[in-house]
Every structure is written in structure tokens, then in C-alpha cells.
């Protein structure tokens, strides 16, 4: 009597599903305070329905990074924070670098624990067995949005996953946003936010730099801090520097 061997080789392959490895591009939210109601209010003011950039996110998954929160703080009720994220069209999915004693409560809130090193720039992706992987969103050079008309006050242009080239003036009250670089071959008098999804290599270029606000990867400077005389109203570039372990904007003249 012959006996069929048992094991995976004797079983038919499933036809209704496949299991594959995957990478999930996540937005990382670096939290610097455990006062969740205040954090929620700030998020809503910036990205809520009545905020400054209400359409900035499109149901993007987000990992909560607690590495900036004071050690020894109590977690408390994070409901306000999670609700604010969802109202801003973000999907809270995972957490990392949480203070001692927070893990169980965050898991109970429906979040997944992610590796602390996940998503650090210029590092290879985590090992396949990790449940969540975060990919730094680098902007491919060939993808470019070109605008050849002036951008009026109240208008917002967003180059999602691309560089933005503007051939006319960006007026006060206007807003230009790009996941990559921003080039303005005219006066820049409104708001400009490059590297919007965390690309720290992004830059802003303008032939006449007079902005209300400039930002790269979330590090910003407003017109309340006047620009130095060698760049104000002149051709200049803005880039991000991490020297000394602290991110800051560098504004430099464009040389001929």
C-alpha cells in the first residue's frame, strides 16, 4: 500500500489569495509634547477642514514618533490626538520610540509597534520579518510640474511627488508646495514649502526671495524673522542643514 507524503508539497496552491512582501510608505509625525489636546489643536489649525492646508493629506498612513516627548511623561488619553489625525485625513497606524510604560496602552488603541530605526534617511529598509516598513519618499528628478501663470492670493499649488517650477510671480497670500524642489523664476512673496513629505534634500530657489514663509521638510521660517540683506529680494536658495544635530534652514545667495 502506498501512502501519500504529508506536507506543503502535497497540498494544492491557494487560488483565492497570495502572500507577498510589501512596503508601506508612511508619514512620520515627530511629537514633541505629551499635551495631546494642544497637539491636536495645532494639527487641526494647520491641516484641518478650516486650517491653512486642509487638503494636504489624502488618507496617508502615519507612524507616531515619540522620541521628542519628555521622558517620564504619562501617556494619558490619546483619543484627542488620534481623532485630530483622522480629521486631517491621516490614518494613525503605528508608533515608535515610546517612553517606558506606554506600549500596552498604545497597542490597546489599535496601533502597531514599529522599530525605532524605521524610516531613517539613507538607510536600507528594515528586515522582511518586521511588520511595518517606512520608506523615505525621494522625489524622482524627471517628475516636474510647471506653472507659467502668476499665482494669486488665496491660490494653492501642490506638486505631489514632484518638483515644482513656477515661471511667474507667487503673490502674497499664495501657497506653493512640493514633495521635491521648488523653483520660482520670479518674485516669491507667498508661502513656499519644499520636501513636504519629509525629503530633507529638497531646496527652494527664487530669483527674488521675499517670502511670507519658507519651509523644507517641516522646518520653517516666517517673515517675522527678516531675511539678511544679501538675500532679501535677491536671487537665493534655501536648503536644510543638520550640522550640530539640529535641523535649520540655510539661505544663501545664488552666485552667477
UniProtKB/TrEMBL annotation:
<keyword id="KW-0717">Septation</keyword>
<dbReference type="Pfam" id="PF03775">
    <property type="entry name" value="MinC_C"/>
</dbReference>
<dbReference type="InterPro" id="IPR016098">
    <property type="entry name" value="CAP/MinC_C"/>
</dbReference>
<dbReference type="GO" id="GO:1901891">
    <property type="term" value="P:regulation of cell septum assembly"/>
</dbReference>
<feature type="domain" description="Septum formation inhibitor MinC C-terminal">
    <location>
        <begin position="146"/>
        <end position="242"/>
    </location>
</feature>
<keyword id="KW-0132">Cell division</keyword>
<protein>
    <recommendedName>
        <fullName>Probable septum site-determining protein MinC</fullName>
    </recommendedName>
</protein>
<dbReference type="InterPro" id="IPR005526">
    <property type="entry name" value="Septum_form_inhib_MinC_C"/>
</dbReference>
<comment type="function">
    <text>Cell division inhibitor that blocks the formation of polar Z ring septums. Rapidly oscillates between the poles of the cell to destabilize FtsZ filaments that have formed before they mature into polar Z rings. Prevents FtsZ polymerization.</text>
</comment>
<feature type="domain" description="Septum formation inhibitor MinC N-terminal">
    <location>
        <begin position="17"/>
        <end position="92"/>
    </location>
</feature>
<comment type="similarity">
    <text>Belongs to the MinC family.</text>
</comment>
<dbReference type="InterPro" id="IPR007874">
    <property type="entry name" value="MinC_N"/>
</dbReference>
<comment type="subunit">
    <text>Interacts with MinD and FtsZ.</text>
</comment>
<dbReference type="GO" id="GO:0000917">
    <property type="term" value="P:division septum assembly"/>
</dbReference>
<dbReference type="InterPro" id="IPR036145">
    <property type="entry name" value="MinC_C_sf"/>
</dbReference>
<dbReference type="GO" id="GO:0000902">
    <property type="term" value="P:cell morphogenesis"/>
</dbReference>
<dbReference type="GO" id="GO:0051302">
    <property type="term" value="P:regulation of cell division"/>
</dbReference>
<dbReference type="Pfam" id="PF05209">
    <property type="entry name" value="MinC_N"/>
</dbReference>
<dbReference type="InterPro" id="IPR013033">
    <property type="entry name" value="MinC"/>
</dbReference>
<keyword id="KW-0131">Cell cycle</keyword>
Amino acid at each position: 500500500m502506498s501512502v501519500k507524503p504529508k506536507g506543503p508539497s502535497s497540498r494544492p496552491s491557494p487560488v483565492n489569495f497570495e502572500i507577498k512582501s510589501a512596503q508601506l510608505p508612511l508619514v512620520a509625525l515627530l511629537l514633541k509634547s505629551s499635551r495631546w489636546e494642544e497637539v491636536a489643536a495645532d494639527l487641526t489649525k494647520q491641516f484641518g477642514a478650516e486650517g491653512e492646508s486642509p487638503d494636504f493629506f489624502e488618507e496617508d498612513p502615519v507612524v507616531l514618533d515619540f522620541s521628542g516627548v519628555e521622558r517620564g511623561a504619562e501617556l494619558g488619553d490619546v483619543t484627542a490626538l488620534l481623532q485630530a489625525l483622522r480629521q486631517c485625513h491621516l490614518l494613525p497606524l503605528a508608533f515608535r520610540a515610546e517612553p517606558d510604560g506606554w506600549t500596552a496602552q498604545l497597542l490597546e488603541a489599535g496601533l502597531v509597534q514599529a522599530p525605532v530605526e524605521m524610516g531613517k534617511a539613507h538607510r536600507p529598509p528594515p528586515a522582511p520579518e518586521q511588520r511595518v516598513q517606512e520608506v523615505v519618499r525621494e522625489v524622482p528628478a524627471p517628475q516636474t510640474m510647471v506653472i507659467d501663470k502668476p499665482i494669486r492670493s488665496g491660490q494653492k499649488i501642490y506638486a505631489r511627488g514632484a518638483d515644482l517650477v513656477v515661471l511667474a510671480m507667487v503673490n502674497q497670500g499664495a501657497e506653493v508646495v512640493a514633495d521635491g524642489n521648488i523653483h520660482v523664476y520670479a518674485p516669491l512673496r507667498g508661502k513656499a514649502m519644499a520636501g513636504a513629505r519629509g525629503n530633507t534634500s529638497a531646496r527652494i530657489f527664487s530669483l527674488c526671495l521675499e517670502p511670507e514663509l519658507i519651509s523644507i521638510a517641516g522646518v520653517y521660517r516666517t517673515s517675522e524673522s527678516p531675511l539678511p540683506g544679501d538675500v532679501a529680494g535677491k536671487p537665493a536658495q534655501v536648503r536644510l542643514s543638520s550640522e550640530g544635530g539640529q535641523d535649520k534652514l540655510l539661505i544663501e545667495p545664488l552666485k552667477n
